[in-house]
Automatic annotation (TrEMBL):
Sequence ranges assigned to domain ATP-grasp in this UniProt record: 678-723
Record-annotated N-acetyltransferase domain positions: 29-184
Pfam families attached to this UniProt entry: Acetyltransf_1, ATP-grasp_5, CoA_binding_2, Succ_CoA_lig
Region listing for Disordered, in residue ranges: 876-897
Protein name in the entry: Acetyl-CoA synthetase
Keyword vocabulary terms for this entry: ATP-binding, Nucleotide-binding
Coiled coil: none
Organism in which the protein naturally occurs: Amycolatopsis keratiniphila
PANTHER family: COA BINDING DOMAIN CONTAINING PROTEIN, PEPTIDYL-LYSINE N-ACETYLTRANSFERASE PATZ
């Protein structure tokens, strides 16, 4: 039970509980704790409720709120009595509250939703946020009284994923359940999150009507271009130009303002100067537009004033139920024949395909679309989100996961707004659909991470992307090279490749590249010779594909002088289509980049589709693309593993310790003392080999006797850590005289009286496990062997939190020096299970305590008898603003994009 002095004052407002939330139909509302000035809003809300809804909530007519109840409803302590209101604009559309029972760990919970907004998922959202607030206030259990005939409310509790006990008496259901998150409740919340975010993007990409605000008659204006592109694509819905100075634009009736449009508007494309966007927003809000697409620039990219305007714009839009794409966006596309939406500044609607593309950069968007068309890559949907003030790549990942028209996802990313969420979504999506990403700005570290970020080498960055199943490439050219294989060819069963061609030199280039990527050649490259006929060439292809040893085929071809190369290309395509061996094929054919007509299998729309053979200007590019596909296929075949939390974790105790330590430092970043490190690690079952800090030889001897001989002595001075030549570490000190002499020597060398005396751990290999921040992936767990050589070579492996058991196991085996742990040259293997257990405990600590900005366990002595932590260092600080835990909420509008 919380003491009185820990309770909030009624006016001690918990601003951190505020959230924009996404509802099941893709709309938004603003959720915040109730405040006394909400009294009038509560009265108005109550007045809009139907008699039936009031009866269900209050078990009686309750036609009006008495003054005494109104004060109790609007004035709460934000601890034992908590209430949230859901706001759409200035109107309260739902209320949820709990009240602690008898100063104990239980509270009664209830909520009510405006009749016009029932069925939008507000009940489950309120329950999640109330449960989170209750947990923070020390509550552990909710109880609820619900009329048995109130099926909707019963369903909210039943479907939340908690273990609910039920009793019924005289038509009233008494429900009780623990509010600690369970695997089922988390899965329910994530499923609802996915459905809501996907629905929100569906609304964006499937509008029935589009208003072009700023539609212009001047061909040099973007408002003219945007309207022209919509009309040229033959949009299946209705287009409404908005221009107060003209009765029509491009032959289409225009309206002075969006509010003058007689029908509903699903999507408003805004193409007016930045300073006019705010006035446009007012009309869009009044009209009830679902999504605002802002192609105008002059916002965050233009400086602090633009950023302020952008934040205000998005905050107002979300508060009124609207989502925003942009500002500074190129726009959105949907090639579906029933939609035909080109709401972009790019002149042509791309060919229809099954590839979804998300691009942050508006400047690159047009070039990307042109490149896709030139390469023969059709698109299903395309979104260029510009500044990503609201809609982001994570939203698109949620949509594409269940979009039946998309089989492949391409991403051009400059930064991550929520890296942990990106990793979670990408990992889930990549299990069914390939995700290929080019990430720019890889060497940039955000200022807010500079103090706790360490440089991660490129091979480790690659491993982190592969952990999430994302195929990472370095350039847009590589992005399209790889996409062509995924879009047109099947996944390989393994890494065994055959090479067939009519040039031994080019065949050897392909073979060398394949070996460099770890691919296995089934045999030497087959050279049919420059004089071979198309039929002989096709026969060699058939033989290679027929071999059970072949998982994939590389075809390298130089056109002979006597016979046109197109004949060979047709022979190759016919052989492949005829055999249908479900093995991927890439080629270097006719020096063509993309899918030449002779190698294309066309869809009904005349666009290259599955079965088309992609061609590359060089064998190296062909094999590089194939190698990425092979690695992805191997990732898909590997066990996913399970998110594991070892036994004996005390997360609540750890959070109390972290809160106390940060509060003592005024919330500033701080290095923990040794005692506090031991306390925090102990909450997660990570024991540090016992030690004492002493200041005299006599104390050193006493400590050694208490700890038990043999002991280790080392300097306390941080400057001398890891410097045995200066720190004067003495090992295996088994006598009183040895300890006394060692102390005196060490004090003389270090110039410091303070010395560690530590019990001697079993001898073993010295390892290091760490936590650090990364601007792309969030919190990382690292592992490697200690020592100068490992540090010099950067021999560390990394995984992003959260970790599965498979992640932890592979982390230990990834460093180049890891064979030393597994019995290299006949040594007895270290206890890898004990090391893996520490890795999982460290990951759990990071997951529960984002305030832990960095941590190093070094050395950990890995031996056949276990793994023993000899030293630890932890830095606490304000948590990064990129949460992926807690109740569902949209990314805060002031969080970095």
């Amino acid at each position: 039970m919380a003491s009185e002095d820990t309770k909030r004052d009624p006016y001690d407002y918990p601003r951190e509980w505020e959230a924009d939330v996404l509802l099941s139909d893709g709309g938004t509302v603003h959720l915040r704790p109730v405040i006394p000035s909400d009294a009038d809003g509560l009265v108005a809300f109550h007045g809009r409720l139907s008699e039936r809804t009031r009866y269900f909530r209050y078990f009686g007519a309750y036609p009006r709120i008495p003054q005494r109840d109104l004060e109790r409803f609007s004035v709460v302590d934000h601890h034992d009595r908590v209430a949230f209101v859901a706001l759409l604009g200035d109107d309260i559309v739902a209320v949820g509250r709990y009240e602690r029972l008898d100063q104990g760990p239980s509270a009664e919970v209830a909520f009510v939703v405006d009749d016009a907004h029932q069925g939008r998922g507000l009940g489950s959202i309120l329950l999640e946020h109330l449960a989170a607030a209750a947990s923070e206030s020390g509550l552990r259990r909710f109880v609820a009284e619900v009329l048995a005939e109130n099926a909707g409310m019963v369903r909210v509790f039943r479907d939340a994923g908690y273990q609910v006990s039920r009793e019924i008496e005289e038509g009233v259901l008494h429900l009780e359940f623990d509010i600690d998150p369970t695997e089922e409740s988390l899965a329910v919340a994530r499923s609802r999150e996915q459905a809501a975010e996907a629905r929100s993007v569906h609304n964006l990409l499937h509008p029935k009507s589009v208003a072009v605000i700023g539609a212009s008659t001047d061909p040099t204006k973007i408002g003219y271009v945007a309207l022209t592109n919509l009309l040229s694509a033959d949009f299946a819905g209705t287009v409404y130009p908005v221009n107060p100075e003209h009765k029509s634009v491009r032959g289409v009736r225009a309206y002075p303002s969006v509010v003058d449009i007689p029908e509903d508007v699903d999507l408003a494309l805004v193409a007016v100067p930045a300073e006019a966007v705010e006035s446009v927003l007012d009309g869009a809000l009044a009209k009830g537009v679902k999504t605002l697409l802002i192609v105008s620039g002059g916002f965050a990219e233009a400086g602090p004033h633009g950023l302020h305007a952008e934040l205000r714009l998005v905050g107002e839009a979300r508060a009124h139920g609207m989502r925003v794409v942009g500002p500074n966006a190129l726009g959105v596309l949907n090639t579906d024949a029933s939609v035909r939406l080109n709401a972009t500044l790019a002149p042509r609607l791309p060919a229809r395909g099954r590839t979804g593309f998300f691009c942050q950069s508006g400047a690159l968007g047009t070039a990307i679309l042109a490149d896709a068309e030139a390469r023969g890559l059709g698109l299903s949907t395309f979104v260029s989100a510009g500044n990503r003030a609201d809609v982001s790549g994570n939203d698109l990942l949620q949509y594409w996961e269940t979009d039946p028209a998309t089989d492949l996802v391409l991403l051009y990313l400059e930064s991550f707004g929520n890296p942990r969420k990106f990793a979670r979504l990408a990992r889930r999506l990549a299990r069914t659909k390939p995700v290929v990403a080019v990430k720019s700005g890889r060497h940039a570290v955000r200022p807010q991470l500079a103090a706790t970020s360490a440089e991660v080498d490129e091979s480790s960055v690659q491993a982190l992307f592969e952990q999430a199943g994302v195929v990472r490439v370095d350039t847009l050219a590589q992005l399209f090279d790889t996409a062509l294989v995924f879009a047109h060819q099947p996944l390989p069963a393994g890494p065994r490749i055959a090479i067939v061609g009519n040039s031994s030199a080019i065949g050897l280039l392909a073979a060398d590249t394949a070996r460099a990527h770890g691919l296995r050649l089934t045999a030497d490259p087959v050279d049919v010779g420059p004089q071979a006929s198309p039929e002989e060439f096709a026969a060699a292809v058939r033989e290679a594909l027929n071999s059970p040893e072949t998982d994939a085929l590389v075809v390298v071809f130089v056109p002979p002088l006597a016979i046109p190369g197109t004949a060979y290309a047709r022979a190759l395509r016919e052989a492949v289509v005829e055999m249908d061996k479900n093995k991927p094929i890439v080629s270097t054919f006719l020096a063509v980049e993309g899918v030449p007509d002779e190698l294309a299998v066309l869809s009904e729309d005349g666009v290259p589709t599955r079965g088309s053979v992609p061609s590359y200007p060089s064998p190296e590019r062909a094999v590089n693309a194939l190698a990425r596909v092979v690695r992805y296929a191997a990732w898909r075949q590997r066990p996913q593993g399970n998110l594991v939390r070892p036994a004996g974790l005390h997360a609540e105790q750890a959070q109390v310790i972290v809160g106390e330590l940060l509060a003592a430092e005024g919330g500033k970043t701080t290095l923990l003392s040794d005692d506090d490190v031991v306390r925090l690690l102990g909450c997660y079952g990570i024991d540090v080999v016992p030690f004492r800090v002493v200041t005299s030889a006599d104390e050193a001897v006493k400590a050694a006797e208490e700890l038990g001989f043999p002991v280790t002595l080392k300097a306390v001075d941080e400057r001398l850590r890891g410097r045995p030549d200066l720190a004067g570490v003495r090992l295996d000190l088994s006598s009183v005289d040895g300890v006394r002499r060692a102390y005196l020597d060490l004090r003389e060398i270090s110039g410091d009286d303070d010395v560690y005396v530590q019990r001697m751990a079993p001898k073993g290999l010295s390892c290091v496990i760490g936590l650090q921040d990364d601007p792309s992936f969030g919190t990382l767990v690292s592992f490697g062997l200690s020592g100068l050589v490992s540090t010099l070579l950067g021999d560390r492996a990394y995984r992003a939190v959260p970790l599965t058991d498979v992640d932890a196991a592979t982390l230990l085996r990834e460093p180049r020096t890891s064979p030393l742990l597994t019995g290299y040259r006949g040594d007895e293997p270290a206890d890898l299970a004990a090391l893996q257990d520490i890795v999982l405990r460290v990951a759990a600590l990071a997951e529960d305590n984002p305030e832990v900005r960095s941590m190093t366990l070094d050395p950990i002595l890995a031996s056949p008898d276990g793994a023993f932590v000899a030293n630890a260092r932890i830095v606490l600080g304000p948590p990064p603003s990129r949460p992926d835990t807690g109740p569902r909420r949209l990314r805060p509008i002031n969080a970095p994009a």
